[in-house]
Specification:
There is one protein chain. It contains 5 helices and 11 strands, in the order αββαββββαββααβββ. It has 189 residues and is α+β, with helices and mostly antiparallel strands. Strands 1, 2, 3, 4, 5, 6, 7, 8, 9, 10 and 11 form an 11-stranded antiparallel β-sheet that branches. Helix 1 runs antiparallel to helix 2 and helix 4 packs across helix 5. It is globular.
Length: 189
């Protein structure tokens, strides 16, 4: 069982609403949501981001009605994600025109807003370079020798995890903008 399955897909993820009390609320589509403890789910998301499992994720960007996905190395500071890439890559071109991105690792999908922070070698990006270097020392050393490498920061808005509520498939949601967490059945048999 992977960390995301233990942390986000196991029975311990479904433990009540804000304040720890079980609760039900209708969703916009009329389905029933079971509210979860937001603070607990936030801490679990931070633990997932700090785990070795989250080092490589798939980053999805879009441009001119096309979606592109590729694997990237990711380091987190709290819940902010950081990666590095070549300034003239598709990733940067897409982010410059549409900052909405998604990252995925296993059953965990993260939607958020990306920002190109500037050169990996800029003094103002030293903290990010050090963060990335602490997680990927060989890669940073190699890429620092290449020109035009930049740091990208992703601020998550929503974290969704595939799971199961009883016998039915479900989606577990950590909404960082509204500070809510819930599980919702997404298919009924």
């Amino acid at each position: 069982m992977t960390m995301d399955e233990r942390e986000f897909g196991g029975p311990s993820f479904r433990q009540g609403s804000p304040g720890g009390q079980p609760g039900k609320a209708p969703s916009a589509g009329g389905a029933i949501r079971t509210l979860l403890n937001y603070e607990e789910q936030h801490r679990r998301f931070e633990r997932f981001l700090a785990s070795k499992e989250s080092e490589v994720m798939v980053l999805a960007t879009s441009h001119q009605h096309r979606v592109f996905a590729r694997s990237v190395l990711v380091a987190a500071r709290g819940i902010e994600l950081h990666l590095f890439t070549w300034r003239h890559s598709r990733k940067c071109m897409h982010i410059a025109s549409n900052a909405h991105v998604a990252l995925c690792q296993g059953a965990v999908q993260i939607e958020g807003t990306a920002e190109i922070l500037g050169s990996l070698t800029d003094p103002q990006n030293r903290a990010y370079r050090d963060l990335l270097g602490s997680r990927f020392p060989k890669e940073i050393k190699r890429w620092l020798k290449r020109p035009n490498m930049v740091v990208i920061r992703v601020r998550p808005a929503i974290v969704m995890t595939a799971g199961s509520a009883g016998k039915d498939p479900s989606i577990e949601v950590l909404d960082l903008e509204s500070q809510t967490a819930y599980v919702e059945k997404w298919a009924h048999y």
